[in-house]
Amino acid sequence: MTEETIVKSTEGKLAAKDYATDQDVRWCPGCGDYSILKQVQSVFAELQLDRDETVFISGIGCSSRFPYYMNTYGMHSIHGRAPAFASGLRSINPDLNVWVITGDGDSMSIGGNHFIHMLRRNFNMNVLLFNNQIYGLTKGQYSPTSEQGKVTKSSPIGSLDHPFNPLALALGADSTFIARSMDRDPKHMRALLLRAEQHHGTSLVEIYQNCNIFNDGAFFTFTEKETKGDTVLYIEQGKPLVFGANNDKGIKLDGFKPVIVDLKDNSANDLWIHDETDRVKASILTRFFDDPAKEGALPRPFGVFYVEQRDNYEDALIAQLNKSIEIKGSGNLDALLRGNNTWEIK
Amino acid sequence: MTAVKEIKEVVTILFAGDSGDGIQLTGGQFTDTAALMGNDISTFPNFPAEIRAPIGTVAGVSGFQINFGSVEIFTPGDQCDVLVVMNAAALKVNLKNLKKGGVIIANISGFDKRNLRLAKMDEEYTIQDDKKLEGYKIHEVDVSKVTRETLKDSGMGTKSVERSKNMFVLGFLYWMYDRSLESTITFIESKFKGKQDLIDTNIQVLKAGYNYGETCEAFPTQVEVKPADIEKGVYRNIIGNEAAAIGLIAAAKKSGLELFYGTYPITPASDILHTLSKHKNFGVKTYQAEDEIAAICSAMGASYGGALGITASSGPGIALKGEAIGLAVSLELPLVIINVQRGGPSTGLPTKTEQSDLLQVMYGRNGEAPVPIIAAQSPTDCFDAAYEACRIAIEHVTPVFFLSDGYIANGSEPWKVLKGEDLPSITATFAPERKEEDAPFLPYSRNEKLARPWAIPGTKGLAHRIGGIEKENLTGNISYDPDNHELMTKLRQAKVDKIADFIPEQQLDNGNEGDKLLVLSWGSTYGVVKTAVKELREEGKSLAHAHVRYMNPLPKNLGALLSKFDKVLMPEMNNGQFVKIIRDKFLVPAIPYNKVQGLPFFTHELKDKITEVLNAK
Questions:
Q1: Phi-psi category of residue B155: left, alpha or beta, with phi > 0 → left and psi -120 to 50 → alpha
Q2: CATH number at residue B577
Q3: How far is B188 from chain A (nearest CA, A)?
Q4: Are A219 and A210 in contact (CB under 8 A)?
């Protein structure tokens, strides 16, 4: 399906624009958030998702304005806490399609705790992590994903903090779906969003997103034609890890150590074949986090790193209640009020 | 010999010993038996803050006080008539809690050199030589020894024998107060079901204690406490936190809503979670969140989804929840926030009681963020107050605070068994589905209660966005308009104020308008103020008592009522908080009377203060 056919409203079917609200979108012109919003609306149209059965929940930050622009249910909550609201909501109504929208400050800093606990509990929902490596809404301080030495308003001679690697953190928290995309590759993003929506569990999609005001070009090395060939590794299930401007390089595993090889001297058959279900390999893959400017840097992977089928919290919660009813019978209020030990005053 | 029987109206017993001595269990059994025998009762446990504080030390002393009588009982009692001490540390800590000339029952095996050393007492100490104990009636029993003797043929190991020694003490007290062993025997049989040897030995020790009382001649008198004149009916005993939990379940049942309880463990609120988590067959969803903030946010997520969302904590946790409570005010969703208060600030006194979070729950948020507050007055009232908090949250679509404290949360009293049908109804109303051609949905329109529609996700045609940014009146869209912000601020306040139209007027609990003094109380001081006022009125003093449960908004007639009295005295277990609100709202020169010791007021100290105020010009 091409972009064109999606935007066009066909009879009885919702078009991407039907998922937009009448509110003015207030991100800065040129912000990478526009691209993400567009792809989400496009995926919604493609899957004909029910607006009244969908809830977007966000925290605080530029990205967290997202729910105001989706013609679904939405809650713009407080800083870092969107996962907690979403968890409560999923616990009560597992029929809803819940999306958490968060940024690098929101999820990695103030909401770091909720982020990891959400992942281990594995509620069935989608989490879009807009990573722009900067605090945008507060006008340009370094974020927990900013590279060390980052010069910003709050770090005029360079930041001291070692940055988070969000996907390695997610894997450490036993996330069951880990993926990365970028704002400037809408096609790739859309494919990943579709995958995320299909996964039964917490689907985490990190999206590299350009903040053209406070951190312009943070990801250009991965997004621009001139450089991306050598810095970007698109990973696909069952395919060898091949990259390079002319698809002339690959990744091989030497024990647990990934090494870059030249395809002139190596057959693609000897390369690392991507397996989304392999946790050990996924942990190596999430560690492909080199500074791309470094000599011999490993390319940055984009795609689905890891998928695992595991029970989700809300299903287990409901099963436990049902079990309890099965054993004890449905709760009787009069019996509860009476308790087990009574006496009578005559 | 046949003992002489002495009749008493009220008796207070304090059991004290190591946490491991089974003090709470002994006290609980004595309580159940007293209840079954028709006495009115009130109890209060006193735990050490540490879970297993070192055995024998002062820090490890656990206590359980029971006040029971043939008259109405409203408090666990001031100083006790009988102090039961299982070791030296327990005596050291609790002698001050015993009435002059009271009875001490001491387990002397707990006064050996080791125990004395652990209690940091002179190793040569003996009870007989202690000058401080002159005038007390002391009865020493080597409980360990007699228990060992009793079980010498049982084949039980030393540890099991040691563990059953509390049953000896209990049996002995049952003899002293002419109680039946039946209830405790039934309890033992059920507790150790399937372990016949334990059933036999515990019952044997219990009976040995009873027989010891009968045969040893140290206590020639048995004390009889006749049944109290209590309203006829079926009763149970209940602890405050348990009552609160049942109140929440009842409110969920009656409103037809699912109950979602998002919380993070904290003393003294955790027992509500423990109770709720036992009742999953009521559809209760308990969620132990990663922290206090996630706890309240998850509850709000559940409320947003159409459940009765509840969160609970104590002061430090409520501080963490502050920002989310502000959002709840802004989102205008039903939510019950429970604060079981303890001593503060910071970690403060986790296992002790205080009323010092009133101003926190009243004002402790950024911006203008009014929240209704209901305070429970006794262990059984925790049920009613929790239920009422839910009713207001659901029917007025608002967050509501339910205030309890460690004293009533852990205290217990008899509770006349209710039926579900006796409870007031609670009506939950969700916004109905909307068709394409209908008028646009206005999420911030209001009904006669000034409540906005509770529009839950999944409802056809109502998709809308809410959030913490100021909302435009009616549409709920983001608005930075100055006049709109002022309007919304006033509307949120008016909505809370409006609740005053839906709550009962303030009544006098005792006395009459025109009495010389009004004692105005709130929260867990109810029982002690009631007792003090009652006793002083019986002495002919001119004073009245009013007790406030609805702390925000206050009952509409409260100001007028206060104006009927020359003087208003306000006892509080804090540095003077409600008195600030009363002075602020009504310009009444109310007199504060404060105790901030982590302990409830004693009746006698309150009576002294009231008398002083009455006598002052």
A1: left
A2: 3.40.50.920
A3: 14
A4: yes
Instruction: Say if residue B316 is in the same domain as residue B394.
Output: yes
The domain boundary, picked from B503, B533, B548, lies at: B503
Question: Which residues in chain B have Cβ-Cβ distances shorter than 8 Å to A77?
Answer: 297, 327, 467-468
This model of the complex carries an ipTM of: 0.96
List the domain range (segments joined by +) for residue B9: 4-224
B419: which chain A residues are within 8 Å (Cβ-Cβ)? 334, 337
State percent of chain A over pLDDT 90: 93
Which residues neighbour A52 within 8 Å (Cβ) at sequence distance 6 or greater? A72, A73, B457, B458, B459, B460, B461, B462, B463
Mean pLDDT of B595-607: 94
**Least Cα separation, residue A340 to chain B (angstroms):** 8
- Non-local (6+) Cβ contacts of A168 within 8 A are A283, A286, A287, A289
Tell me the domains of chain A and their CATH numbers: 3-228+274-313 (3.40.50.970), 240-272 (no CATH)
CATH, residue B147: 3.40.920.10
Closest among A335, A316, A345, A313 to A86, alpha carbons compared = A313
pTM of the model: 0.94
Q: Of B178, B193, B224, which marks where a domain is finished?
A: B224
Query: Per-residue DSSP letters for B112-171?
Result: SHHHHHHTT--TT--TTT-GGGTTSEEEEE-HHHHHHHHTTTTT--HHHHHHTHHHHHHH
A123 closest CA partner among B457, B279, B298: B298
B120 plus B190 within the same structural domain:
yes
Give A333 to chain B, closest Cα distance, Å.
6
Q: At B322, which CATH number?
A: 3.40.50.970
> Same domain for B31 and B97?
yes
Provide the domain count of chain B: 4
- Both B20 and B121 in one domain: the answer is yes
Q: Are B290 and B393 in a shared domain?
A: yes
**Look-up of token digits 């679509």:** B397
**Which residue does chain B place closest to A336, by CA atoms?**
B246
What does the pLDDT read at residue B156? 83
Task: List the single range of A6-20, A122-136, B106-120, B145-159 with lowest mean pLDDT.
Answer: A6-20
How many inter-chain contacts (A to B, CB under 8 Å) are there? 204
Question: What is the predicted pLDDT for the residue at A182?
Answer: 98
Q: Which residue of B has its CA nearest to A87?
A: B298
The answer on B345 and B316 residing in a single domain is yes
How far is B333 from B454, CA to CA, in rounded Å?
Answer: 7
Q: Quick: pLDDT tens for B402-418.
A: 999 999 999 999 999 99
Query: What is the sign of the dihedral through the CA atoms of B199, B202, B208 and B209?
Result: negative
Q: Which residue of B has its CA nearest to A326?
A: B281
Model confidence at A10: pLDDT above 80: no
